[in-house]
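@channel sequence for tomorrow's demo:
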Amino acid sequence: MKKIDFNAGWSVNGKSVTLPHDAMIGESRSAEKSTQGHGYFHGGVYEYIKTFAVPDDWVGKPVLLEFEGVYRNAEVYINGRLAGGRPYGYIPFFIDTAPFLQFGKDNTVKVVADNSELPNSRWYSGSGIYRPVWLHIGEKDYIPAESIKITTLSYSPTRILVETEHIGGNVSVEISDGGNIIAKGSGSSVELDIPNAKLWSDETPYLYTAKVTLDSGDETTVTFGIRKIEWSNKGLFINGKETLLRGGCVHHDNGILGACCYAESEERRVRILKETGFNAIRSAHNPISKAMLNACDKYGVYVMDEAWDMWYKAKSKNDYASEFEANYHEDIKAIVRRDYNHPSVIMYSIGNEVTEPHDERGLAMCRTLTDTVHKLDNTRPVTMGLNPMLLFMAAQGNATSIADAEAGKAESFKMPEKMDSTAFNQMAQMIGVGMNQRTAHPDVDAVSSPCLDMLDIAGYNYASARYPLDGEAHPDRVIIGAETFPQDIAKNWAMVKRYPYLIGDFMWTAWDYLGEAGIGAWAYTEDANTFDKPYPWLLADVGAIDILGHIGAEAEYAAAVWGLRDTPYIGVQPVNHPGVTPYKGTWRSTNAIASWAWQGCEGNDAIIEVYSDADTVELMLDGNSLGKESVNEYKAVFTTKYNPGTLTAVAYGKDGAEVSRSCLTAPKGALGIQMIPEKTSVTTGEIAYVNIDLAYENGVIESNADCKLTVTVTGGELLAFGSANPRTEENYLDGAHTTYYGRSQAVVRSDTAGEITLAVEGEGLHMARAKIIIE
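structure tokens (generated this afternoon):
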């Protein structure tokens, strides 16, 4: 089928928009109409309308609309008649338009997205048609969308199976490598040998192209990789090579862009994650976007694609739980059909921290979900993010969901009577890292094992104390740390390397996100001294990488633990809050940043963290030693007074010889606005990122001179402008925002060739300009 971009020419509630579009990011924020989970954004009902011409020659042809994601309760009308929809906001779906079209005329499609009933999520969801829309047109004989399956049968010798579902016609298959046909065959199910094959993995993400054609002329092109997954208590093997997963959990939003799923944004996130050292992501806690899957295929990042955050017991008052049982089978079908040819997807997760499997009904559901996935795809393992502690509490009659609380089940750990989305995490905050140790109790194992043993790979959330125990207690079990505290990465990674049955670790989180406001914050404001952060808290403030894509100290620490750093990393806890001890969220290990430019902070106490795999580290300021410290679990910590200069860390081996060094350079010259486009030229319709910082003439960013900047764009559209400040009343859409530790970012786009110019002003600062060529 021919695939046509269907994203231009829409309106929403009377306003012209180009998809993808997030309606929630433009809403007001308040505690009266929303919650911490949603970042205090309001919801609403949104009507998207598009008029398009339908020629007479479409008569008798299949015409499908593909929606990659609409949040939520989507209803699709064509020429005023209900054509279909989807309640779950993260699932792709197709609409057969043929029965509703008027040929030779203009036709109207209307999509109603109802996200008015909050809370319905434990994080920022976005609203509306936030992922792309496509129009598919076929011939009378045609290959339906997502109807080709390519399976690696063996990698030595390399042999693949190409299976095609089609309506009429005869099938021909061509496999190409860089435009050269290397294999061909015919038939609805055909096995092909691939000569001199290049295998796909995180280290060699090589992709091939399959063109499948019917003799009617209808054709479909599929990109795939040759990759075979094997797993046992001996480990995870990709094409026969043992593979350890350096993982991070990632939510679906794109920071200042809200939930908008732009291909460039998704690729940018994956690229930065891979450059940082991650080789795997968990799509927490909903199906990943198609654009991010494409990027993971391209860069070599493994994916645990997760289906749901809840089953039939609600975690938020108005979430998907009430519709889960009627729709889970179609959800799984949609996920598997979309994911099948993506080599990056190496396992499916059927849920996150659900507590239903503590009883027979829940165990039956676990079995049903696992079996359903296996029937559709027997090449990938099934896992889930199971929290053994929560499951144990559920078995004891403690309220762990809205349904349990309303049923009057007993409280535990001073849990509130009504377990809403915020309270659910508040319990985890209260237990903290001790949750890991509590899972070592035999009773916790007894409750969780019936569920875990149904899975191909047992996913443990916050249960690292079980890692060494379960190699003996459950010798055939394969385990993955599906969700872990970032501060535990050194201990956890040591166990990943020690125990072959423990195949990887996924920290919470790899990338900061909107909503679950302040759960990880290390903050200095009085309102931070609580888990339930009030308005105007906005971001979770929990990512190893911030929402702008700047790599933080936790990511650098993980890279040191993984053995991927050649030089020491220097992180400085903010020195501009003298005498104030920050409130420390459980889901963050540090608030250090790579900065030794703190205007006006001379003489303040400074805590400096250096990450290295060396034996000892010496810290120097302008060549003068500030001391030498032993490295413990890849970290050395120094306390000193802040004074300007060049801060240098020198790493030494056990023999006392210098191994490597790095430095934070002293600022030079005047302070001004620095603008650095990440790309100097883009194609029409492609979005572009511009980093806008307060920096000195030598490029050093000042961390203690934040001010409001205003961006003006000519020749294009300003999609967003903002910072990584987790607590703000500013929005991302009006072109004015205050920097955070000296940093901010703009995202722009133009639908016509030419030039985009950005001009940025700030009080007391000279205007700065940057240009991007649109080709």
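heads up for whoever presents: The two ends are 28 Å apart (CA to CA).
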